[in-house]
Amino acid sequence: MIYLWRYIIPIILLNKLNCMKNILLSAIILLSASCTFAKQEVHLKGQLKNIGDTSIGMSYNGALSLIGNSRNIVIHTDRDGYFDTIVPLEKPEYYSISRNTLYLSPGDDLAVFITSSNTEASFNGTGAEANNYMKYRLFPKGGSYLESGKNVGENFMATKYVIDSLAAIRYAELDTLKNVSKVFKDLEKARITADIINSYITYMYYAKELRNLSSPEERKQFLSQHATTIAPYVNPLYKEINEDKYLNVAVVRDVFSYRSDYAEWFEGVEETLFSKELYQAARYAHTIDNESGGEKLDEIATAVSQLTDAGIKRELGFKIEKAGSLLPGKPAFDFQFVDTTDNVYHLSDFRGKIIYVDFWATWCVPCLAESPAYESLAEKFQGQNIVFLSISIDTTKEIWLNYLAKHEKKLTQYYTSDTNYKEDWSIKYIPRFLLIDKEQRIINAYAARPSQESTEELLRSLIEN
């Protein structure tokens, strides 16, 4: 009997040790899981090259970006564009830097190289596979698969064949990805589908048939006929992507914006409550961006209280609050800019004068069209108590300087890379003009263009008062 226990006791002890080992292993796994869950952030480092100065915007590009920009982030770099930063992030989101769309998830640890050309970007580390795939996303404003007219055939059906073939290739590329989530694949499948819809729709603007149509009536009839032609093709595709989660994809938001204009495309495509409120809020946001009256803000604020989605209400509330700070009589936001010889100025340096600011860029055709009228007004008011500040917001100072080297300007020219101006003054489009009084109070944050007949008389009255 004693002989037998010599073997039984070690076995019992071994089982207990194994049990303890399993418990310890389980505890380690649980601890690891909890640590992963707690890491609600993204680590980004690398270089942002030829995109801006040392403060570069990373714009939130999810559904609520249709309303406002409260989720935007500023990345601070050194003079060569190198940076190392932590971005708090609770759930996967799309962001954009210049023409690059990023897909970031909590726990991502990415080394990046990004330029103004999306295909030049490179990503390494956790989250890299999704973002290297995103380098080749299409541009809706260029007609998606039409590539600004490059892939337009002799007629719609010939073009449709090209669109469908290119989309099939993109679907296949997406299917090959291994280290991405199902959520990402679902979103990107929706992007491909929406790009197909967008390509079918925008064909009407690139169609070769338009070249033979001279009268506005003929062109209008062609566009109407095309809308009917594509209805049976786009309708089932709309049904595939008619889910709220897909509105986090920019091109999906784009194609659903046609709902009120082309009912035949949306037959049987029921609008969700979130979608309805999102687009209504976007219309409110558009009004806020283009009208500066306090009464209009009060009206929109009342309407916001009727919305049910907390995220939409919060974003639109932020927008209203921001717009309130730009009403006439409010203090003007200060920001920094430089002249061609790198002398530094601030808006506040011009206190005591009426200030008429022109935000423009070398790539903005409407801006360049306004320039002669702006310079003409500046010449008329020379020597009076008003200053004209022509401020470029080009991506880099070099682009601005190269343009000035080829285009003579009578006015002193300025350039800003100060990220505060865009957020503070809610610059969503250019050209954009500001009028500020002698006490650095806002006269109009959405001032009239210099080419408007009433502008000269308005400036004269401000100087005389």
Automatic annotation (TrEMBL):
One of its GO terms (biological process) is cytochrome complex assembly. Pfam families: AhpC-TSA. It is found in: Cell envelope. Transmembrane segments: none annotated. The keyword Oxidoreductase does not apply. One of its GO terms (molecular function) is oxidoreductase activity. This is Thiol:disulfide interchange protein TlpA. The keyword Disulfide bond applies. Residues 326-465 form the Thioredoxin domain. Keywords: Cytochrome c-type biogenesis, Disulfide bond, Redox-active center. GO terms for cellular component: cell envelope.
